Amino acid sequence: MSSDVRFTDFKSDKQPTWCPGCGDFGTMNGMMKALAETGNSPDDTFVVAGIGCSGKIGTYMHSYALHGVHGRALPVGIGVKMANPNLEVMVAGGDGDGYSIGAGHFIHAVRRNVDMTYVVMDNRIYGLTKGQASPTSREDFETSTTPEGPQQPPVNPKALALAAGGTFIAQSFSSNSQRHAELVQEAIEHDGFGFVNVYSPCVTFNDVDTYDYFRDTIVDLDEEDHDPTDRDAAKEKILEADKEYQGVLYRDDNSVPFEQREGIEESMADIPDGAPEDAMDLVREFY
Amino acid sequence: MPDDLNWAIGGEAGDGIDSTGKIFAQALSRAGRHVFTSKDFASRIRGGYTAYKVRTSVDRVESVVDRLDVLIALTERTIDENMDELHEGSVIIYDGERTTMQNVEIPDEMIGLEVPLQRLAEEAGGAIMANVVALGAACEVTNFPIENLDESLEKRFGDKGEAIVENNKEAARKGQQFVQEEYEQDDFGYDMETTDEDYVLLNGDQAIGMGALAAGCRFYSGYPITPATDVMEYLTGRIDQYGGKVVQAEDELAAINMALGAARAGARAMTATSGPGIDLMTETFGLVAQSETPLVICDVMRSGPSTGMPTKQEQGDLNMTLYGGHGEIPRFVVAPTTVSECFWKTVEAFNYAEKYQTPVFLVSDLAMAVTEQTFPPEEFDMDEVEIERGKVVDEDELDSWTNEKGQFQPHFPAADGISPRAFPGTVDGAHMTTGLEHDALGRRTEDTEIRQEQVEKRQQKVETAREEEDWDYREYGNPDADTLVISWGSNEGAMREGLAFLEEEDIDVRFISVPYIFPRPDLSEEIEEAEQTIVVECNATGQFADVIEHDVLERVDRVNKYNGVRFKADELAEEIKEKISEAEVTA
What we know:
By secondary structure, chain A is α/β, with parallel strands linked by helices. Chain A is built from eleven helices and eight strands. Chain A has an eight-stranded mixed beta sheet with strand order 2-1-3-4-6-5-8-7, with helices on both faces. By secondary structure, chain B is an alpha/beta fold. Chain B has 19 helices and 21 strands. Chain B has helices spanning 17-30, 76-81, 117-124, 130-142, 147-157, 162-182, 204-214, 229-238, 252-264, 275-290, 318-323, 339-356, 366-369, 395-398, 448-468, 491-504, 524-529, 543-552, 569-586, and strands spanning 5-12, 34-40, 49-57, 68-73, 86-94, 111-114, 200-203, 217-222, 245-248, 268-273, 295-301, 332-334, 359-365, 372-375, 432-434, 474-477, 483-488, 509-514, 516-518, 532-537, 557-560. Chain B has a seven-stranded mixed beta sheet, with helices on both faces. Chain B has a six-stranded mixed beta sheet with strand order 2-3-1-4-5-6. In chain B, strands 16-18-17-20-21 form a five-stranded mixed beta sheet, sandwiched between helices. The longest helix of chain B is centred in the N-terminal third of the chain and has 21 residues, at 162-182. Chains A and B meet through strand 1, strand 2, helix 3, helix 5 and helix 11 of A and strand 7, helix 7, strand 8, helix 9 and helix 10 of B.
């Protein structure tokens, strides 16, 4: 790790193709700031993303990166981190990627508690496929595939994470850039799976969950004297369906990352030129 | 007197059939006899017919045959299930005092040995040792020195304490003495010669796991599925000794993606599954190829389609591994043909994966996965293992792969199609890779020229590999014979032994066993030389035959088996004979 890393070092020279005004700009800037703030360099950082607008993030950032298939970014990130625990692993996803097609992986990544950061750009709509309902869309939100609204309650990702044994659950708003960057930084610094759900408005297809809506409704947990280490208090806040919070909802300060429990300390990249010296013992076992 | 012995123990799942069979097989192996085992089992945990069969000889044995000489029958059904294989003089050991076995009728020409297994076990210290009593009886029947059983019992029960081991040895002797004392016929015609050879006894899944460790595999993620789970169980714990880890993923999609992630981080990584799991993983095949990530994907085939017959044999996934996935995916498909080749082909698979940065499918099948076979340990000579990691570059070499802006180009279209790899952590090597079409930097593009260049670059890897590696086959029988038989995968053993049966009938055959499906050896000359070509495989449609026909533009004959059971040597010889005579009639 080098100390003179600036957040712009994490920026690639590729111009984003996100719509002007997209919430993802702020989300990504916060991620880059947080990575620089925590003393990481692009060469020891691995960013994984799935599909959708959020999936483009690896291209616009500068680091080791993989842009994978829809919904499977978390398992890739887990594999990277376990094979080399010295890397800073950050996974970016969207609400479709993380809570629909990848929902199964989400639950298991949370409970596995590998030391990595998961940032979900939640805009409550499918943007790149041009405006269909997402798992976090409101029950009555009319879209091209749900003209009467989805007619089912939205997924509560923070509740899923808490129920699955999450050790760090936070919520931010991409437009509150300083606060958002702080929360991602806290997630990175957390020993275990740091999950940040980011309200990242889609200015093209979602005219309900807009910047104005979030600005008017969002409440900072610091103003509510919320104790993030109190699981019951976190539960209460998380289950308040009509409230939009920003801040750390829950944090387990005793969290021990999975790879540490499994005793992984070194990179798995270095191997000998031939079979291990004592490899014939593997054969003799079968006598 | 038969020069090899076919022995089996059968009963209900949960009767300890597997461990009893294994104890006997190990005792034989330690006594310097060759062993080839097979299992009949159903997809359930308790109940249902199950059997463990052992074929043994001082010579190497490589298949099962339709003959059973000694059978330990724990249930009446065991006798019915095996009636076809029992013959005049076969010995059936059973507990006549057991309520369910009291009215057992043994056909006149066979020898029924009523041994009070449970009562003798109780005398030795516990009814649970009934199967071991039966093993002792079997030693007496087959003239196999019972002392050889002792070590095997120590291995099996050692961690349960000395007393348990001693009780078991005692139980075995009670079975032996009972047969000695109660049966007038003291010679059943078997002579179980022992030798000084030290063999190892292992199955195909274990050999794959061992090959992975030898090859430096450090990360394995998988989801339990029959018959691939043994690979995972073998690696669990053992891989840790080398700084690696096995992760049981939440599903196959996660399993292959975790392995992909580990491979991107620089680890040699693998996943193994069977048909239904391969279906789920298919989505990621393209990503592996497009991101040029080295990955070994092992498919231990079972009967399909859908959930098919999970505990039965088939070679039905060849097309899936050759063609699975949308778009065009450069890949290698390697299919070991024997248990020991499961080891060597796994080592090769890792080398191909890293040298060419592609998915490598390692295709095995249930018949090999559950077959335990003896080998001289030298057959797994670890000094022979070579590890080739391909074009991995460090920070000093990075320079030669950067563009004018100093950016590292992980997908540089090199003439051989193989780009440089920089493991994460390499200074100034930070780069993007993606399943989207991309440029040399790994960044998304829809530029038609770059698209074409990158497609050609990826395909070039296969062409380079065709040139650089030996895509060879193994050959048996008479090289000048008019009839050419070709098989792939686990059929090699049965066919090799089948050659002996054919020879007895003066039928001359050239046999080629192919371990490489893609790239594969060019067989056009061999096929042209032959008057008739027969392709043997365990599937209904002849997937490998299709491929061969396509290669040589000539119709080949097919021998297919798809009832869920592997080929037996004598049966296969019969089928080949029939195909030859069919061809003669039409000629």
